[in-house]
Backbone:
């Protein structure tokens, strides 16, 4: 099994030593997930270069002009300065919000279908969708074709939801937090290493002058990783959903399509509310609200950090990359050393504790005038980042019935996608209208209200 013998996976395997009966499926799943995340994140540092690429006259089209006009109108409305750097960030933010909005539409539906057909077929379907999106990206000579690739990628981006359901299938309730920590570690590794590949492609695009180099090289790299991921899943992964637990039917799923995309129904978990006791439904709804509000505020802070560090500390792209590398490594260590050891009965209290960490993080970052103070705020930010989502996901998974875990986790992650679609737009509006200090002060007050009344 030399295919899985690389440092990232060896680290993950080392932190599973405390898990009873570690399964072969876990290692295969996390390995495939790493390929998936490397392919997904390698584009992140490329957005400014990609936007510049499609701004050239020979690649520019009507859709690009529409995006550019919309971005300028939004910047004028909130008083944001016009500069090439900030224009690229806003442009990338719009594309990111579009991707999250499409994921919001597809994630719960594909998760529910995995309760009918099994995890492996739907995981492969999702990955084949990503493969198609990367292929279209590799051929994207115009902005419209590139956006089409992002649309297909967003609609098929359910691999994380299904991977989470697989963890719920193979781990007992008292150990599910350890399984979720593994997914969190994979995320941290993916978001550390993947952008490094993207940074390399961005740098090499300045050396190679051919127009097709920028999108061809990165897209072909993502294609290769996704093909390897498909190969790993097809040959080595077994189905994890017990056929006896497949009580849902495809008719049930299609008849309730509206329930999977209507926001009010999603917040009430209507798609799965008839499968568990009323008390558990009420608790699940509270977790869903907390998750949405937390990610709404968190994603806004995450998006505006690039503006803040550029304005206050004059960070360039390299310094901002080091900032994200710092938080990524800290998150990985916390998830490997702390999160996996949290017992199931302590998850609720730990979630509240971790959400509370974002409050001093907001306050510290808002008022930081030196880099030491700023990095102190980043440390608190990383603590919350490492703990909240894996633990909340574990809490919701433990409440779900055995035959509706895919649908439940799909709905739950869908709320996160909606938060990530809206949060950056809301936060950037406040950031430029009233300034970063007041913007982040409002943010920590919202989180405080979530803890008190959520």
Residues:
């Amino acid at each position: 099994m030399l295919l899985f013998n690389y440092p990232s996976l060896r680290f993950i395997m080392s932190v599973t030593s405390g898990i009873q009966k570690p399964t072969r499926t876990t290692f295969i799943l996390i390995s495939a997930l790493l390929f998936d995340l490397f392919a997904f994140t390698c584009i992140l540092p490329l957005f400014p270069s990609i936007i510049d690429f499609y701004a050239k006259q020979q690649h520019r089209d009507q859709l690009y002009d529409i995006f550019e006009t919309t971005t300028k109108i939004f910047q004028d409305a909130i008083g944001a300065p016009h500069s090439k750097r900030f224009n690229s960030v806003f442009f990338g933010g719009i594309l990111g919000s579009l991707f999250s909005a499409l994921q919001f539409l597809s994630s719960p539906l594909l998760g529910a279908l995995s309760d009918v057909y099994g995890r492996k077929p739907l995981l492969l379907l999702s990955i084949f969708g990503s493969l198609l999106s990367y292929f279209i990206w590799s051929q994207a000579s115009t902005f419209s074709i590139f956006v089409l690739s992002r649309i297909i990628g967003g609609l098929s981006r359910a691999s994380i939801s299904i991977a989470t359901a697989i963890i719920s299938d193979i781990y007992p309730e008292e150990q599910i937090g350890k399984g979720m920590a593994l997914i969190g570690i994979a995320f941290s590794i993916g978001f550390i290493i993947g952008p490094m590949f993207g940074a390399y492609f961005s740098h090499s695009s300045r050396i190679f002058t051919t127009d097709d180099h920028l999108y061809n090289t990165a897209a072909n790299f993502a294609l290769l990783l996704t093909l390897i991921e498909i190969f790993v899943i097809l040959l080595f992964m077994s189905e994890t959903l017990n056929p006896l637990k497949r009580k849902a039917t495809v008719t049930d799923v299609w008849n309730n399509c509206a329930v999977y995309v209507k926001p009010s129904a999603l917040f009430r978990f209507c798609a799965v509310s008839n499968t568990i006791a009323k008390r558990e439904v009420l608790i699940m709804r509270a977790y869903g609200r907390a998750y949405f509000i937390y990610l709404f505020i968190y994603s806004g802070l995450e998006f505006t950090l690039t503006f803040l560090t550029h304005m206050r500390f004059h960070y360039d792209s390299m310094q901002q990359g080091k900032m994200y590398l710092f938080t990524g490594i800290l998150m990985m260590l916390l998830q490997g050393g702390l999160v996996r050891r949290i017992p199931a009965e302590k998850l609720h209290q730990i979630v509240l504790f971790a959400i509370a960490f974002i409050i001093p993080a907001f306050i510290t970052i808002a008022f930081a005038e030196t880099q030491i103070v700023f990095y102190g705020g980043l440390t608190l930010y990383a603590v919350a980042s490492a703990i909240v989502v894996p633990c909340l996901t574990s809490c919701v998974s433990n409440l779900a019935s055995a035959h509706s875990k895919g649908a439940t986790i799909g709905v739950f992650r869908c709320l996160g996608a909606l938060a990530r679609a809206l949060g950056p737009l809301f936060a950037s509006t406040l950031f430029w209208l009233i300034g970063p200090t007041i913007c982040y002060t409002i943010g920590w007050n919202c989180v405080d209200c979530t803890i008190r009344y959520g």
Notes: Residues 23-452 form a domain with the Growth Hormone; Chain: A; fold (CATH 1.20.1250.20).
